[in-house]
TrEMBL record, chain A:
Taxonomic lineage of the native organism: Bacteria, Pseudomonadati, Pseudomonadota, Gammaproteobacteria, Chromatiales
EC class of the enzyme, as a word: oxidoreductase
The entry's keywords: Cell inner membrane, Cell membrane, Electron transport, FAD, Flavoprotein, Membrane, Oxidoreductase, Transport, Tricarboxylic acid cycle
GO CC annotation terms, alphabetical: plasma membrane
Spans traversing the lipid bilayer: none
Descriptive protein name: Succinate dehydrogenase flavoprotein subunit
Pathway: Carbohydrate metabolism; tricarboxylic acid cycle; fumarate from succinate (bacterial route): step 1/1
Enzymatic reactions: a quinone + succinate = fumarate + a quinol
Protein species of origin: Candidatus Thiodiazotropha lotti
Active site residues of this protein: R286
UniProtKB/TrEMBL annotation, chain B:
Subcellular location(s) per record: Cytoplasm
Protein name per UniProt: FAD assembly factor SdhE
Gene3D superfamilies named among the record's database cross-references: Flavinator of succinate dehydrogenase
Main subcellular localisation: cytoplasm
PANTHER family the UniProt entry points to: FAD ASSEMBLY FACTOR SDHE
This protein's record includes keyword Chaperone: yes
Keyword Flavoprotein carried by entry: no
GO term, biological process aspect, one: succinate metabolic process
Family statement drawn from the similarity comment of this UniProt entry: Belongs to the SdhE FAD assembly factor family.
GO cellular component: cytoplasm
Keywords, ordered alphabetically: Chaperone, Cytoplasm
Length: 586, 86
């Protein structure tokens, strides 16, 4: 196959907050930058982030980065790397000011400073009074940031490949990553983009689970590309589930509903949280509520014809309270669940929301290919955002730290790439084998004939992940799940497209996404099976305690042989004293 | 100006319905599959125009219940809100 080729200093895969903030640093430094995005950039999932960005600006209440660091380390259940967390919390401040100067319309205080709101998990003075640390642009923070960064990139002449799907990383003979093979979704034509440096910024992978709050685009593409390139994924067992998503659909029903007095019931009308959390009841922590819901369903007390969800009852609050204090919930429930919560309960089930794990990087966004703590980063390859794991969230992410993570590490990866390109100014020759392998993988989907459809296998896979690697994690069912997902991986070779057209072939794009989902799904299932403790979002009823002696270490998963290795948590910060592990009580 | 080819290119429109928000993915894709082909040309043009708006605005109209000023646009949004996705 004759391939069209383009050359850039840097190739960025993904156009969410991480990709666009990195691209802007690079384009402003006059590097030749390409951004590849499978959808139009401002339709990236960053647009769905409403909450805001944490930075210790101290505009509303006293604050400093060290308190922010304490909260983040504690929130991570002590699995976060404290050097990276210190760096992120310090860099949060210049990152937010840079966004402000670039034109992000942050909400303001009467004195003109950036308004900051209080969020759960934020404290003053190392666990004291509530802090107010989250900078927001009304309830459209993600959109405001994405829109601003996109416009600034257009000004700075970043080259955008909109509606191109990244297929695989391309390497040279020594294994150095030198760009990617991408597919023009509009024409079906592949394109080889050669680059001196490559940044993976492809976002999360919530679509591995049947019920998720993530958009359809969140299929873990960059994570799977890293796995196929022989790189590990780190801490993939740590997946944050929100307890109340609309059953079978995934859209979030805010915790505010339970805060206002809504409560959960099973098929017998029993208010079951009273059994699991007699004091906090429906306001128990997210993981407790999520696990209780799944337990009710597993023990045959679920609602609906398949008994696969529970109900969230709010009608007793009355129409006025629902309209006044829970705007949006009534509309969402009517449209996506077909019920009016003023009269009927809302069917709910835990929904996969955010993955703490990802492609392991150091605090400069450089990809770390081995379990060795003092090993070298892979030359020229970077990752940032939800697809990456700089290990700032550890086992659990705090609200307001996800936008922060993508913006800080996108920016810092950009700065580091500028230095790398100064010292590595020439393009290196590609490996023909590496290109051929990627083209083969693409052409495999041209095979016609009878077979399993993409949608059939995707449905089976996502249900299996939900049942065996979701909220409820015990040894036997997880071991069973790993075997089932491996069997599904074997079935991929029997999948055939139902549409072989060239232009805007969604069937082919979804087949490529399915390969990615399955590879990433296995990393979650295998990593979760082997972590025999409960920490942060990873909750094992058969190993209910956090075991710092044995398990204060990161999981690394490789696709080849479904191999696992571990490496220690970096508990030594850069300039301050380490926060030793303590019981996490709020 | 939206030409005839663009109106009929369902494959392209299907990809344009991939958004940054799950709510819009589900609603817009369902509307496209269930109702788009039966719409008069005028309303099909409006749908294509709608897809060019930023996600939070489409969300405010189609999920949040805000009403666009233009009456025909408001009619389209009402049809999208009434699409069966439950």
């Amino acid at each position: 196959m004759a391939l069209d080729k383009q050359r850039f200093d840097t190739l960025i895969l993904g156009a969410g907050g991480a990709g666009l903030n990195a691209a802007l640093q690079l384009a402003n430094a006059n590097l030749k930058v390409a951004v590849v995005s499978k959808v139009f950039p401002t339709r990236s999932h960053t647009v769905a982030a409403q909450g805001g960005v944490n930075a210790a600006l101290a505009n509303v209440l006293p604050d400093n980065w060290h308190w922010h660091m304490f909260d983040t380390v504690k929130g991570s259940d002590y699995l976060g790397d404290q050097d990276a967390i210190e760096y992120m919390c310090r860099e949060a401040i210049p990152t937010v000011y840079e966004l402000e100067h670039n034109g992000v319309p942050f909400s303001r205080l009467p004195n003109g400073k950036i308004y900051q709101r209080a969020f759960g998990g934020q404290s003053q003075n190392f666990g004291g009074d509530q802090a107010a640390r989250t900078c927001a642009a009304a309830d459209r923070t993600g959109h405001a940031i994405l829109h601003t960064l996109y416009q600034q990139n257009i000004r700075a002449k970043t080259h955008f490949y909109d509606e191109y799907f990244a297929v695989d990383l391309i390497k040279d003979e020594e294994g150095v990553v030198l760009g990617a093979l991408v597919l023009n979704i509009a024409t079906g034509e592949p394109l080889l983009i050669e680059s001196k440096t490559t940044l993976l910024a492809t976002g999360g992978c919530g679509q591995v689970f049947r019920t998720t709050s993530n958009a359809h685009i969140n299929t873990g593409d960059g994570m799977a590309m890293a796995l196929r390139a022989g790189l590990p994924l780190m801490d993939m067992e740590f997946f944050q589930f929100h307890p109340t998503g609309i059953a079978g659909k995934g859209m979030l029903i805010t915790e505010g509903v339970r805060g206002e007095g809504g409560y959960l019931i099973n098929k017998d009308g029993e208010r079951f949280m009273e059994k699991y959390a007699p004091n906090a009841k429906d306001l128990a922590s997210r993981d407790v509520v999520a696990r209780s819901i799944v337990t009710e369903v597993r023990e045959g007390r679920g609602c609906g014809p398949d008994g696969d969800h529970v109900m969230l009852k709010v009608d007793h609050l009355g129409e006025d309270v629902i309209a006044k204090r829970l705007p949006g919930i009534r509309e969402s429930s009517k449209i996506f669940a077909g019920v009016d919560p003023v009269q009927d309960p809302i069917p709910v089930f835990p929904t996969a929301h955010y993955v703490m794990g990802g492609i392991p990087t150091d605090r400069f966004g450089r990809v770390m290919p081995t379990a060795s703590d003092d090993g070298d980063p892979l030359p020229g390859l970077y990752a940032a955002g939800e697809c990456a794991c700089a290990s700032v969230h550890g086992a659990n992410r705090l609200g307001g730290n996800s936008l922060l993570d993508i913006l800080v590490f996108g920016r810092l990866a950009g700065h580091n790439i500028i230095e790398y390109v100064k010292q590595n100014s020439a393009h290196r020759p590609l490996s023909d084998d590496s290109v051929a392998q990627s083209v083969d993988r693409l052409e495999r989907w041209d095979v016609k004939g009878e077979g399993i459809t993409v949608s059939e296998l995707r449905k089976e896979f996502r249900k299996t992940m939900e049942d065996h690697a979701g909220v409820f994690r015990v040894e036997d069912m997880m071991a069973d799940g790993v075997e089932k997902v491996k069997a599904i991986r074997d079935k991929l070779k029997d999948v055939r497209l139902t549409d072989h057209s060239a232009t805007f072939n969604t069937n082919r794009t979804e087949a490529l996404e399915l390969e990615n989902l399955i590879d990433v799904g296995l990393s979650i299932a295998v990593s979760a099976l082997h972590r025999k403790e409960s920490r942060g979002a990873h909750s094992r009823p058969d190993f209910p305690k956090r075991e710092d002696g044995e398990w204060m270490k990161h999981t690394l998963y490789w696709k080849e042989g479904d191999k696992l290795e571990y490496k220690g948590v970096r508990s030594q910060p850069l300039t301050v004293e380490s926060f030793p592990p303590k019981e996490r009580v709020y | 100006m939206i030409d005839e080819g663009e109106l009929k290119n369902l494959d392209r429109l299907r990809w344009q319905c991939r958004r940054g928000m799950l709510e819009l993915d589900v609603l817009l894709e369902a509307f496209l599959e269930q109702h788009y082909s039966e719409l008069p040309t005028r309303m099909q043009r409006h749908f294509i125009q709608l897809l060019e708006f930023p996600d939070p605005i489409i969300h405010a109209w189609c999920v949040g219940g805000e009403k666009p000023d233009d009456e025909e646009f408001a009619e389209l949004v009402a049809s999208i809100r009434a699409t069966s996705v439950a």
